[in-house]
């Protein structure tokens, strides 16, 4: 079809104005090339914007999926600390508030303790330490039988637990009205962690669905990185599935599940 020079000039002007509107920095490039540049920009923006999040999720999921890969080995170093929760006689089978298989946590925790003491890294332990009229006891209107009365045999650390002489102990539930569910109830714990510049906490103990859960949630709220010692904790499971629900809650809040084999 014939097109006179006036029509050509008009077409070229319209195309130039369209390019100027949509690609103001490069109006002289061909449409084809401009589209390629724009597509690349979108791709680049997506990759850069989402890369770190994808990587974080990937790293978080790997420890559970592929235990043999070197990337799953966690090397202990400065800034790491072990926190053993409530490993006391009353919470073991035969105690006043027994957690099923609670005794099986002890040998595993001992091996974690070895790993930390070998590297001269701090080991902390919490212990439930109640007055006789503690508010959590059934006769005071609470949900639990009497347990971990301060100074009693039941409140002592489990026989067989090898805490190092350097262990720092933090009591919880020392007042009638404090439930003692979180190690951070003792203000001294946070102070000590700050003093020793701890940034990564390895937490295990009893019970998964109460004191471990509450301590881990508080630690995450305080911006500590938390690694869950999944092979060194057990749940009370007052309701079936409580332990699993607690694990899911801690993981979705940011805690990373690990096992002894992954710690070096
Ligand atoms: Zn208690």
Describe the structure.
The chain folds into two domains: about 5-65, no CATH class; about 75-260, Rossmann fold. It is elongated. The model is unreliable at about 40-70 (pLDDT under 50). Helix 5 runs parallel beside helix 6 (about 240-250). With about 260 residues, it is of the alpha/beta class. The chain contains six helices and six strands; from the N terminus they run H-H-E-H-E-E-H-E-H-E-H-E. The protein binds zinc ion.
Strand and helix layout:
Layout: H1 5-22, H2 31-65, E1 80-85, H3 105-118, E2 123-128, E3 168-172, H4 187-195, E4 200-206, H5 208-221, E5 225-234, H6 242-252, E6 256-258
Bound molecules: zinc ion.
Zinc ion binds at residues 128, 130, 136, 147-148, 173, 180.
Helix content estimate: 25-40%
User: Largest beta sheet: what is the strand line-up?
Assistant: 3-2-1-4-5-6
How many individual domains? 2
Net shape: elongated
Oligomer: single chain
């Amino acid at each position: 079809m014939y097109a006179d020079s006036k029509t050509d000039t008009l077409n070229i002007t319209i195309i130039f104005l369209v390019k100027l509107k949509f690609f103001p920095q490069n109006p002289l490039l061909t449409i084809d090339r401009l589209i390629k540049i724009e597509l690349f920009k979108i791709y680049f923006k997506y990759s850069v914007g989402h890369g770190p999040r994808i990587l974080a999720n990937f790293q978080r999921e790997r420890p559970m999926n592929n235990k043999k890969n070197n990337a799953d080995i966690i090397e202990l170093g400065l800034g790491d600390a072990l926190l053993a929760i409530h490993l006391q006689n009353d919470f073991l089978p035969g105690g006043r508030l027994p957690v099923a298989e609670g005794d099986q946590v002890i040998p595993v925790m001992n091996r974690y303790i070895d790993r930390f003491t070998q590297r001269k890294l701090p080991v902390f332990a919490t212990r439930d330490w109640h007055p006789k009229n503690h508010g959590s006891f059934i006769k005071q209107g609470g949900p639990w039988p009497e347990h971990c009365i301060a100074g009693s045999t039941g409140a002592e650390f489990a026989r067989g637990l090898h805490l190092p002489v350097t262990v720092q102990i933090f009591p919880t539930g020392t007042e009638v009205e404090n439930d003692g569910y979180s190690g951070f109830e003792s203000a001294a714990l946070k102070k000590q962690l700050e003093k020793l510049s701890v940034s990564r906490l390895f937490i295990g103990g009893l019970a998964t669905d109460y004191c471990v859960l509450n301590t881990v949630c508080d630690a995450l709220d305080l911006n500590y990185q938390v690694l869950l010692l999944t092979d060194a904790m057990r749940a009370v499971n007052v309701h079936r599935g409580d332990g699993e629900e607690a694990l899911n809650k801690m993981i979705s809040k940011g805690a990373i599940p690990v096992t002894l084999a992954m710690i070096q």
